[in-house]
Amino acid sequence: MNTNIFVEHPSHNVVIIKLNRPEKRNALNISLLQDFLSTLKSTEKDPSKRVLILQGEGPVFCAGMDLAEACDTSKSIESSEILAQVFSALYHTPLITIAAVHGAAIAGGAGLVTACDLALASENTFFGYPETRRGLVAAQVMVFLMRQLKQKDLKELLLTGELIDAKKAQVIGLINQVVPQEKLLFEALKMANSVINGAPEATQETKQLIQKLYPSKFEEDLLLALSNHQQRRRSKEAQEGMQAFLEKRNPQWEI
After folding, report:
1. Confidence of residue 177 (pLDDT cuts 50, 70, 90)
2. How many CB atoms lie within 10 A of CB 218?
3. How far apart are CA 125 and CA 113, in angstroms?
4. Is 113 in contact with 125 (CB distance < 8 Å)?
5. Of 49, 34, 184, 194, which Cα lies nearest the Cα of 119?
């Protein structure tokens, strides 16, 4: 039985997939990512499903990758590659994807949001990319951010590592809507119903054409980002940054 992922079917055309590691703030470890990928692939085989709503169980949507696992050099390559596979699968799926975010979406968790077609968040939600504070580079999520944000906003997010609230996330284009917490799922389903009102083939072709018209190829950008991510994760800075985070201390950078 898969306990990393919950699946619900609120209607004939809509599926809800929930990240389910609430005790770890839905941190992205290899097992969860593999389960998510297999769940997504099996959902795509159901011709009745047109919209996927992505949520997280517990107090936050997703706190990012599991740094305890990321510190394990024997798993570094595998975890980075499965993360890239998940990002690519979300980007390319014929389903229209909606991230319904609450609490926090940090680093790779925020990456999941940007990989979705649409996103809305509750008012109390924070977003951020603190990778540089862990000695890392937000390389893979940068592939999506470059397609969605103005460069000044992108640089502010990635170079400062500061968290932003849902209202600012909407202003800069990271998400589409900010809604009250108690109406998050209602508004996500409302958005899903708006998508379903469109013709199925026309909706899918619209999504595909938007992706094809972008100047650079997604696959090439993601491969370049993955290579950078893997090199950076093996660096001394990354090992120090991640270990410092786990030990709840300030990292000691070599200058």
Report:
1. very high
2. 17
3. 12
4. no
5. 184
Distant-in-sequence, close-in-space partners of 160: CB < 8 Å, separation ≥ 6 = none
Q: What is the number of other CB atoms lying within 10 angstroms of the CB of residue 108? A: 25
- Tokens, residue 236: 């001394």
**131 labelled catalytic:** yes
Structural domains for the chain: 5-183 (3.90.226.10)
Closest CA to 29 of 127, 132, 109: 109
Stretch 230-252: mean pLDDT, rounded? 90
Two tokens at 238? 């990354």
What is the pTM assigned to this prediction? 0.93
Alpha carbon distance 128, 154 (integer Å): 11
Q: What is the model's pLDDT at position 1?
A: 53
Q: Which residue in 69, 131, 182, 220 is the catalytic one? A: 131
Quick one: what percent of the chain has pLDDT higher than 70?
Answer: 99
CA distance 228 to 215: 21
